[in-house]
Specification:
Helices cover 49% and strands 12% of the residues. By secondary structure, it is α/β, with parallel strands linked by helices. It has a five-stranded mixed sheet, sandwiched between helices.
Length: 233
């Protein structure tokens, strides 16, 4: 009898395939007449921008938070229009920022909005099985994880393995000759781009979906001092 050592990525991938087959068939948005019509990446991005505009002007509509919405997503399943990798920081309330409700956003939260094995596998589930046409990596100002890497702070436990994805971004920011708050902010921007690069470099599925035009990846930085969003090219 041979042994097989399962990695967390193997387990997550297997679970995603199994759950996806039982709960929501691949490309169900296009084939399920009871689901919402298929949405383009541009339409999904526009919904995010419109929701954020309402949030900024104090005119949030707080959609899809009714008992009827709960019943609908229970009976018909979830059909989010975007997968978001966001930092876990409590000052970044993702659904509120974009003025969305139950079943709208497929949110992955992790310190430093890094894209490592677990995050990539979850994003693959969002884009490949829930058919979200858009993936957003959302960083934020005053990010503690990025700041710690830039300053070389000593961290313990499992945190070093968590933040090592941020190191290339910090090095690129330092190479620009910046200092102080400007250096930290640039490292935060670079870290958003790094996560997008990691998604593409380490996921054949996401890279394929992007190449076919079925998924678009964008990055943004949320400014915790005033609620503004800085969209990155």
């Amino acid at each position: 009898m041979c042994e097989h050592h399962w990695s967390r990525r193997d387990m997550l991938a297997g679970m995603a395939v199994g759950v996806g087959a039982l709960v929501l068939p691949r490309f169900a948005l296009a084939s399920n007449p009871s689901a919402a019509p298929a949405m383009t990446p541009e339409q999904a991005l526009q919904l995010l921008k419109e929701g954020h505009a309402r949030f900024m002007t104090g005119k949030s509509e707080r959609p899809n938070l009714t008992p009827q919405r709960i019943a609908e997503t229970f009976s018909k399943g979830q059909h989010p229009f975007v997968t978001i990798i966001s930092c876990s920081d409590s000052r970044v309330p993702v659904e509120h920022i974009f003025d969305r409700g139950i079943g709208d956003l497929f949110v992955i939260r992790v310190a430093g909005n890094v894209a490592d094995t677990d995050e990539i596998g979850t994003a693959e589930y969002g884009a490949g099985h829930l058919n979200t046409p858009l993936i957003l990596v959302l960083g934020h100002t005053k990010c503690g994880a990025v700041t710690a890497v830039v300053k070389g702070d000593k961290v313990g436990g499992s945190i070093p393995k968590l933040v090592d994805n941020i190191i290339p971004a910090a090095e690129r920011a330092k190479a620009k000759g910046l200092a102080g708050d400007e250096l930290i902010l640039e490292a935060i921007r670079e870290n958003v781009n790094q996560s997008i690069q990691d998604l593409l470099a380490n996921s054949q599925e996401l890279s394929h979906l992007r190449h076919e035009g079925k998924v678009k990846m964008v990055g943004a930085v949320y400014h915790i001092d005033n609620g503004a969003l800085e969209w990155l090219s």
